[in-house]
Amino acid sequence: MLSCAVRHCSRYISKMVPEVVFVLGAPGAGKGTQCSLISKEYDFVHLSAGDLLREERQRPGSEYGEMIEEKIRNGQIVPVEVTCSLLHKAMQNSGKQRFLVDGFPRNKDNLEGWERVMSDKTKLLFVLFFECSPEICTERCLGRGAAGSGRSDDNLDSLKKRFNTYINDTLPIINHYDELGLVRRINAEVSPNEVFQDVKVAFQEVGMQQIAN
Ligand SMILES: Nc1ncnc2c1ncn2[C@@H]1O[C@H](COP(=O)(O)OP(=O)(O)OP(=O)(O)O)[C@@H](O)[C@H]1O
Ligand SMILES: O=c1ccn([C@@H]2O[C@H](COP(=O)(O)O)[C@@H](O)[C@H]2O)c(=O)[nH]1
């Protein structure tokens, strides 16, 4: 009886598909800040593609370290094989089921790579899109740099390149998901707490429950 229940249970677990929310928006729109708030109140693991790439860049012996640093400094996008594999590993290592994938997919290569490798292993719930003007975003990133972020791309030269990439490569991806009816737009030009109130509405609309404190 017990072994039957265990077999039934493991069959059930192996059928659970990890759920994903992509979190997109311009550099400095507040994606990381909001993901951190969301993961405290909802049962979602925050996976920042940029943070995973920065960690990989620092990993002794990484064959990708130099390439990642060059791409980051120039606001260019790292090939999807690298980013997707880091995301996949982080998802598996977490042992969890729900993920906020912050800052990905950023271009056509990312989108196609994810669809090739991950779309049959995961379920995309929706895309959170934080809307914020380039002026406000630039001020925030420069502020973050001045406050000691240590990021090699929180400077005006890199920011210009990051915004070009965002406009040319990432906005078309957001439009693609918008056409599929998957985008929840959030005004990110107000305070973090005000932004979070709108985020909560978006999560409620898709039936996500807050974790009881
Ligand atoms: N709503 C907000 N109002 C004012 N400042 C904010 C707001 N949200 C975030 N910030 C600040 O702006 C900076 C960028 O925020 P954050 O790192 O969350 O953005 P991001 O979209 O993840 O950026 P990036 O894409 O560059 O990693 C941080 O210094 C953060 O404290
Ligand atoms: O999927 C991704 C995510 C990020 N990058 C590179 O990292 C920097 C910084 O990303 P943040 O999200 O702002 O932390 C980004 O400009 C890209 O160079 C990437 O290649 N692919």
UniProtKB/TrEMBL annotation:
CDD domains: ADK (cd01428). Transmembrane segments: none annotated. It holds the Pfam family ADK. Binds 1 Mg(2+) ion per monomer. Coiled coil: none annotated. ATP binds at G28, A29, G30, K31, G32, T33, R144, V190. NCBIfam families: UMP_CMP_kin_fam. Catalyzes the phosphorylation of pyrimidine nucleoside monophosphates at the expense of ATP. Plays an important role in de novo pyrimidine nucleotide biosynthesis. Has preference for UMP and CMP as phosphate acceptors. This is UMP-CMP kinase. It comes from Spodoptera litura.
